[in-house]
Amino acid sequence: MNHHQWERFDRLMAQHAPRLFTSLNPPASPKLVDEVERQIGMRFPDDLRLAYLHHNGSPEVMMGNEVANFFYPDYRWSSLEQVRQDWQKNCEHIKEWRSWENPEHLFPPPDDEVWQIMTLKIRPEHLCAKWIPIARTNMGAPTIFVDMQPGPSGELEQLLAWDPEIGPNLFIYSNSNRQTMTVERYILALSEGMENDSVTYDEHGWNIKE
Question: What are residue 106's DSSP bridge partners?
Fold first, then answer.
């Protein structure tokens, strides 16, 4: 993905989703991106880094208490500060849950046969420190992650939709487009949809025609 594609997306948002476009934060500086990368111990994928160099996510509260939903259907794009905070919080959760008396249902041990299933797209863990949290609802969860440690048949940088009760699943763009989503593919799919009128935006968020 390149700046031209992001500029195209910005123009389309300004025309078709002005409510969302005006709610997004100004760009983050390269220095801030570098700092957050250092704090979480992971380099952002190029497409994610580019996204933050165009918009530093969105504020936690907008338009009263309403959320400007960036990720379909109801996820707000997190700012870099929220990414850092959520990543640290998730690491604390992982440490706490692993200390429980029987953590195997959340974190199967390496010798568990589930690790031998080569068709798994997501590692068989409830939560992972190698997932970058980039979106959440106004209640704080569920969350969308960029997966930097996928399963054997998964794809690096795949987007995950995580729920505290059921754990991670692949993020689904729509029922008719179930390809593995990355930040780049998501932005390009929305851009194409706005151009051909199959995607609109209202006070509830994105509407994707099937």
Answer: none
Secondary structure of the chain in the HEC alphabet?
CCHHHHHHHHHHHHHHCHHHHHHCCCCCCHHHHHHHHHHHCCCCCHHHHHHHHHCCCCCCCECCCECCCCECCCEEECCHHHHHHHHHHHHHHHHHHHCCCCHHHCCCCCCCHHHHCCCCCCCCCCCCCCEEEEEECCCCCCEEEEECCCCCCCCCCCEEEEECCCEEEECCCCCCCCCCCCHHHHHHHHHHHHHCCCEEEECCEEEECC
Residue 135 neighbours by CB distance under 10 Å: 25
Tokens of 73: 């259907």
CB count, 10 Å around CB of 76? 25
Q: For residue range 123-135, what is the model confidence (pLDDT) as tens digits?
A: 999 999 999 999 9
Q: What is the pLDDT of residues 177-202, one digit of tens each?
A: 889 999 999 999 999 999 999 999 99
Q: What pLDDT, on a 0 to 100 scale, did the predictor assign at position 140?
A: 65
How many other β-carbons are positioned within 10 Å of the β-carbon of residue 106?
16
End-to-end CA gap in the chain: 25
Q: Is the pTM of this model over 0.90?
A: yes
